[in-house]
UniProtKB/TrEMBL annotation:
This is ABC transporter ATP-binding protein. Residues 257-314 form the CBS domain. Belongs to the ABC transporter superfamily. The keyword Transmembrane does not apply. One of its GO terms (molecular function) is ATP hydrolysis activity. Pfam families: ABC_tran (PF00005), CBS (PF00571). SUPFAM superfamilies: CBS-domain pair, P-loop containing nucleoside triphosphate hydrolases. Keywords: ATP-binding, CBS domain, Nucleotide-binding, Transport. GO terms for biological process: quaternary ammonium group transport. Residues 2-236 form the ABC transporter domain. Coiled coil: none annotated.
């Protein structure tokens, strides 16, 4: 869907991105992560030509992006950034309608789309449509920013630290929301973050960058279990590796299905990391587990969790 072929970008003679080759597949959730100044945002902005590349080729749907009209290209790609960039003198509905209006959608279709998106992002349309950005919390503003990026149903969603500067609870809620949207709409998403947990939670594919280059790319599990070098190993943190791996596995994979115990059950689709917190909270050794319909489906043992962790650390 998007291919970087030996791409470089220079600012005042310094390479911000060096000889970068990367393929982003259709429908994939790709997360760019790395040290500060490693070239993540520059890479993202080259995709919608907010920054023009100096060397190499970038193709979108098989075509070099320079051959597109930059504005037309941007309308095919939603863009959401940390600072939100909502227009302060426009209300929520007007903000969301920006691109559909540029595309000259009929009014009724725009109005319906605004309601649909507010609903998708968990904002009551009647309550929020007419509000101005200063009448919204930071988390609500970020939601409207994401709704605006999705408005014209773009083929690609580009997000630069879209959940930055949010409290952990709102951040987690928005992360869940974007995963839901990704699963629902199957859109290609490229997201830049500093946050390792966020990358592990969201990515189909993680691209680890340093000094304008890709150090390693792969699934979260590949990067955690097979770091390409010391930088990758250090970046994801040796000491917490076991705990991080737990966040990638679900309770359902570690169940003893033939057992049954009484007690307040946990859901089978929780991550093992969330289950670990529950063991600690409840100070217990075993937890009953139910499936998505609430039917008991087995027991999770703390010892299995720890054993699994040791096994993966070897
Ligand atoms: N418009 C610009 N003019 C000059 N230098 C720039 C410009 N944009 C980026 N750079 C430089 O290019 C390098 C890569 O910047 P970029 O913003 O892509 O990094 P990043 O990985 O996104 O960093 P951060 O995580 O801190 O946002 C940095 O050294 C930065 O100072």
């Amino acid at each position: 869907m998007i291919e970087f072929d030996h791409v470089s970008k220079y600012f005042q003679g310094e390479a911000a991105v060096k000889d970068l080759s990367l393929t982003i597949r259709e429908g994939e959730f790709t997360v760019l992560i790395g040290t500060s100044g490693s070239g993540k945002s520059t890479t993202l902005k080259m995709i919608n030509r907010l920054v023009e590349h100096d060397e190499g080729r970038i193709r979108f749907a098989g075509e070099e992006i320079r051959n597109f009209d930059a504005k037309a290209l941007r309308r095919r790609m939603g863009y959401a950034i940390q600072s939100i960039g909502l227009f302060p003198h426009w209300n929520v509905a007007q903000n969301i309608a920006t691109v559909p209006q540029l595309l000259k959608w009929p009014k009724a279709r725009i109005e319906a789309r605004i309601d649909e998106l507010l609903d998708l992002l968990g904002l009551e349309a009647a309550q929020f449509r007419e509000r101005y950005p200063h009448q919204l919390s930071g988390g609500q503003q970020q939601r409207v920013g994401v709704a605006r990026a999705l408005a014209a149903d773009p083929e690609v969603l580009l997000m630069d630290e879209p959940f930055g500067a949010l409290d952990p609870v709102t951040r987690a809620a928005l992360q869940q929301e974007i995963v839901r949207i990704h699963n629902l709409l199957g859109r290609t998403i490229v997201l830049v973050t500093h946050d390792i947990e966020e990358a592990l939670r969201l990515a189909d594919r993680i691209v680890l960058m340093d000094g304008g280059q890709i150090i390693q790319q792969g699934t979260p599990l590949e990067l955690l279990t097979n770091p390409a070098n010391d930088f990758a190993r250090d970046f994801f943190g040796r000491s917490e590796l076991g705990v991080r791996l737990l966040s990638l596995r679900q309770v359902v994979n570690s169940l003893r299905v033939d057992e049954h115990i009484e007690g307040e059950p946990i859901k089978a689709d929780l991550s093992l990391r969330e289950a670990l917190s529950l063991f600690v909270d409840r100070q217990c050794q075993q937890l009953p587990v139910v499936d998505e319909k609430g039917v008991p489906c087995g027991v999770l043992h703390f010892s299995d969790l720890v054993r699994g962790e040791h096994a993966t650390n070897r």
